């Protein structure tokens, strides 16, 4: 593993800079794409007894996200857990696939009103993360969350795709696990052979872009107001859950509509890295309070179902069964302790 990540000696001279996809050169984009594809070729470290469908290192991250879905969404773990997940993916890309850059992000606020053909992350070129799914006539979605008393209802109109990724480097990208969420009407693929969704079920990644979602929830105005108008984490976190977090997944659709295995789409990490960027910016406006003092909001379970205590800095979190636990405290600052990164 990179020694820098664990020394706690973060300085202006060694800090990593995570950059927006559009700010990377064509060469840098291809290097990232190649590293992600490499991760999908490496053998899984997940126990076959736990997830026989996990065949690659990329699948390992899907397993972890699926295992903890009902405690890391609509809970106090959303932001710290996904910060650590993105960090672990970045580490795997660098240490196992020779990637020399850092995890890029997708600034939805910059591109919300830009047609896919003009957006470097979605234009379908060999330097993109591929674009929409092929258009397939389909219905919208109406499903409920896997927790909550009562569960929350999620409505999503039919998007502009609905089929397998149509072009670009991930046109043949395969997801092996899931689907797990119920009521997706085929938008996440055929049923899994195991009830828990961890059986081997290779299929294409479906995307179903819904532009009005990203325009409504992830615009520059919305992101700016979220950062400037949320005076405490108790305002910021709920607004993130129902706003920019939901907006990114809701825009992509398809596999991203499956709360459990959405990490099977490489866009998942671009989205969550941007979420981490927004959180980091918000934290930096009142570092003393927002990093450790009054820094967490929410309980240890999705929608507090079953009822649970509030998340604390000393709680342990785990990204994958073969990785060591870290504390929430370990994840709170991007420039202290285990991390050493900023955003451009």
From TrEMBL:
<keyword id="KW-0560">Oxidoreductase</keyword>
<dbReference type="GO" id="GO:0046872">
    <property type="term" value="F:metal ion binding"/>
</dbReference>
<dbReference type="InterPro" id="IPR002227">
    <property type="entry name" value="Tyrosinase_Cu-bd"/>
</dbReference>
<keyword id="KW-0479">Metal-binding</keyword>
<protein>
    <submittedName>
        <fullName>Di-copper centre-containing protein</fullName>
    </submittedName>
</protein>
<dbReference type="GO" id="GO:0016491">
    <property type="term" value="F:oxidoreductase activity"/>
</dbReference>
<dbReference type="InterPro" id="IPR008922">
    <property type="entry name" value="Di-copper_centre_dom_sf"/>
</dbReference>
<feature type="domain" description="Tyrosinase copper-binding">
    <location>
        <begin position="265"/>
        <end position="276"/>
    </location>
</feature>
<dbReference type="InterPro" id="IPR050316">
    <property type="entry name" value="Tyrosinase/Hemocyanin"/>
</dbReference>
<dbReference type="Pfam" id="PF00264">
    <property type="entry name" value="Tyrosinase"/>
</dbReference>
């Amino acid at each position: 593993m990179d020694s820098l990540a664990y020394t706690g000696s973060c300085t202006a001279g060694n800090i990593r800079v995570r950059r927006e996809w559009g700010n990377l050169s064509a060469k840098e984009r291809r290097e990232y794409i190649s590293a992600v594809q490499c991760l999908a070729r490496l053998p899984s470290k997940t126990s076959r007894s736990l997830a026989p469908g996990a065949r690659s290192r990329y699948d390992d991250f899907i397993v972890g996200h699926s295992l903890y879905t009902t405690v890391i969404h609509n809970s106090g773990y959303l932001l710290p857990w996904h910060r650590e997940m993105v960090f672990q993916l970045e580490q795997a890309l660098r240490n196992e696939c020779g990637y020399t850059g850092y995890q890029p992000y997708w600034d939805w606020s910059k591109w919300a009103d830009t047609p896919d053909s003009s957006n470097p992350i979605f234009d379908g070129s060999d330097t993109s993360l591929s674009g929409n799914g092929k258009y397939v006539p389909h219905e919208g979605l109406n499903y409920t969350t896997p927790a909550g008393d009562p569960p929350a209802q999620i409505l999503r109109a039919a998007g502009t795709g609905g089929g397998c990724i149509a072009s670009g480097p991930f046109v043949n990208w395969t997801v092996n696990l899931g689907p797990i969420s119920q009521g997706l009407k085929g938008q996440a693929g055929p049923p899994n052979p195991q009830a828990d969704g961890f059986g081997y079920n290779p299929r294409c990644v479906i995307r179903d872009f819904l532009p009005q979602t990203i325009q409504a929830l992830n615009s520059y105005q919305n992101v700016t107001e979220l950062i400037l108008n949320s005076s405490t984490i108790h305002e910021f976190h709920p607004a993130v859950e129902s706003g920019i977090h939901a907006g990114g997944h809701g825009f992509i659709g398809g596999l991203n509509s499956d709360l459990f295995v959405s990490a099977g789409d490489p866009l998942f990490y671009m989205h969550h890295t941007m979420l981490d960027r927004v959180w980091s910016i918000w934290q930096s406006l009142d570092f003393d309070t927002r990093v450790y003092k009054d820094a967490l909001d929410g309980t240890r379970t999705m929608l507090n179902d079953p009822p649970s205590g509030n998340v604390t800095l000393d709680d342990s979190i785990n990204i994958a069964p073969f990785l060591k636990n870290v504390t929430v405290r370990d994840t709170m600052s991007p420039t202290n302790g285990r991390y050493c990164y900023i955003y451009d």
